[in-house]
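Progress narrative, work stream C.
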Amino acid sequence: MSEQNRPVEGEHKYEQEIGSTGEHEERPGRSLITTDHDVIRKWADERGARPATVPGTEHDGRAGVLRFDFPGYGGDDLEEISWDDWFRTFDERGLNFIYQEHKKDGKQSNFFRLENPGREDA
């Protein structure tokens, strides 16, 4: 099984699991969870967001804290990185991408967080 298609781990009773770009929220405001690279990249591209990291958080020459730089949100404290570097770090850490497509009112949502299912403090 490839890293990109690994199962989402942990207890996720409040989230809907998404495994491909053809799947969508059951209702606006629903929290979604995925590890699929295509789903994550499509979500970011739809919002004009670029893969980024927080400078000074690198470990052994690899990206540190992963973020997205959204246009118009003052990402001066972020450093843009390649999708390859972003996803390599995402996979190596075994992270889950938790996000929303839309807010409850139907407007596009930029909400996301990264979760390490093996750590309580992630």
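Work stream C, second folded protein:
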Amino acid sequence: MSETIDALLYDMLDWLARGAQPYADVMDAWRTSCPRLTIWEDAVERGLVEHCRIDRTAMVQITAQGRAFLASR
């Protein structure tokens, strides 16, 4: 399952590497109720993404660790 999660993490991080995205959009796209596919939770736990505020809007952006994860693939 780790390969599946890593592949999905790569997809999410590749999307975020193009620019910060609104938190609501990230939740719509990546939050799941499936206990086996915890992509959002894994990304946060691993420090690959972070919450931020841009112009008073809740956003999500990739971290340096997230960029290193992308580069390692």
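The chain has a mean pLDDT of 91. No further action is required on this item.
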